[in-house]
Amino acid sequence: MISPCRRAVVLASSLLLGLALPHPPATAAASKTTTKTPTATVKSVMKTSSPVQATVKTETLPTLASRLAAVKTAKSLNYYPSGGGWTKMWTDWNPAKIDADLAKAEALGADNLRVIIFPSTFGWPKPWNGYQDRLATLVGMAAARGMTVKFTLFDWWNGYGEVANSISWVNTVLTRYKDDKRVIAFELQNEFNASDTAAVAWARKMVPAMRSSFPTMPLTFSVDGTSGVPGMAKIKSALASTPIDYFDFHFYGNSERALAVIKNAQATAAPFPMVIGEVGLNTLQNTEGEQAAFLARVFEAAEAAGVQSVAPWTLNDFTQGAIPSSAVSRIPAQYSYGLYRVDGTAKPAAAAVKAGWTNTAMPASLMDPSFESSAGQTPWRAFMPELGLAVKTQSAARTGKWSISLTSTGKTSAGSPSYRVSPIAPVKGGQKWHAEVWARGNAATGTTQIALSWFDIKDKWLGGSSSTWLPVGTTGWTRLVVDAVAPAGSTSMQVHLKSGANKGTVWFDDAVISAS
Which N-terminal stretch is annotated as signal sequence (predicted)? Predict the structure, then answer.
């Protein structure tokens, strides 16, 4: 960590470099850099009062192995300021806001920052010094917070025919970081499309060129969340003759089966290591409680699979206008992936990420076992609401103030209405699961119980187990329990508090879900 005094000096110099800079013309002068001779160590001789005596200070330079080890364990954060997403982070430069955000990231436990660089903004084909200075400032600000950085290059760019300019551009912008311990990896392009023949031809030339210029820098490409494991397999196959050092997997799929997906990705990447370079869930189409549970599941699954680096997307929600006019800016959900709201307050997901990064237990409140969480903060969801909507109520509670009730429900061959959730712990075949809940009824009819359902990696239902029924009529609080073993092939599980064909009312409270 850096002392408060030194941190103040870094921030002060950052602010000086943060003066407004006009966007450069394409012909702006290239940055001047000095290339260091690649050696294992750098030695400097300190002068003393004696002409004979000297103190030799040795600084160990990073190696490919040391940097790759840092990549595999990095507590990485994808970052843009809330008011400056994508290229606007650089054009609407605000170092004071950035440093305040880095303080939040540091408090969560982050030790690495993913920095995305756009050739169209930095100047193409010749980079402009002004934006390189801003990049250097950001690297220094991250270091002052105890964070290394990873550079993602060539985002929002498709000039694949310009290989010579691509190599020259990278060398101009990044040679100064060749032996800089603060920089641990280069991602040559974000969410690379291995089905694009021009992109693949460019990549096959860029990888060896970058190895020549930056022999100790790990190289990677990321795969988009839609292409997933098959997309990563295409990248590996396309670059078999010029392999990269590790694979960067972006996870935006179903978190309930995260362990199986991550293990498949690992097997596809092998023998190369894999990190989860992006993972997130928006809170426009989902609740904040669901977002927190989503991230908690992925962190828990990654730990079970032995993947030590999980990078949330992203620190902040974005204000309107913060994303430059683009296909991204026209997707409303893109503004709502943050761990923090635009007013700077934390969503429940921030606590989940902090637990994941600090290797502490996930907060019990994430699962909302007694239904006391405020509106939008629970991971539970109504299932088959057209047959009867599960609602949160204060009309009865076993503990606390709230419970869940179902009234006048229907039932079909497809099932009964319920209130459901998936556990945070990873699911796999052969596990023993225990679930319980307290229930009571008022003139209840039909079937009221707690039930478990298992699914395979393709979301096919594999079977289920249920507790005994709550007695019909009017009853006091009664404990319903189900114990069962997940069938072979299980990758996810759902817990349902259900009541079907019920002409009266039932309440549920104080649920428990655990695996052994």
Answer: 1-28
User: What DSSP string describes 57-126?
Assistant: EEEEPP-HHHHHHHHHH--EEE---TT--TTHHHHT--HHHHHHHHHHHHHHT--EEEEE--HHHH-SSS
Tokens describing residue 59 = 């600084």
The string of pLDDT tens digits covering residues 499-510 is 999 999 999 999
What is the rounded distance in angstroms from the CA atom of residue 298 to the CA atom of residue 301?
Answer: 5
Q: Decide the pairing of beta strands 432-442 and 505-515.
A: antiparallel
Is the pLDDT confidence value at 25 over 90? no
Between CA 182 and CA 467 the distance in angstroms is: 55
**162, 167, 173, 175: CA torsion to nearest 10:** 180
Q: Is the pLDDT of residue 53 over 90?
A: no
10 Å CB burial of residue 152 (0-12, 13-18, 19+) is buried
pTM value surpassing 0.85: yes
470 neighbors 506 (Cβ within 8 angstroms): yes
Distance CA 48, CA 140 (A): 31
One-letter identity of residue 23: H
CA 459 to chain centre: 23
The answer to whether the CB of 427 falls within 8 A of the CB of 254 is no
Phi, psi values for residue 176, rounded to 5°: -60, -20
If residue 495 lies in a helix (H) or strand (E), which one and from where to where? Answer: strand 492-500
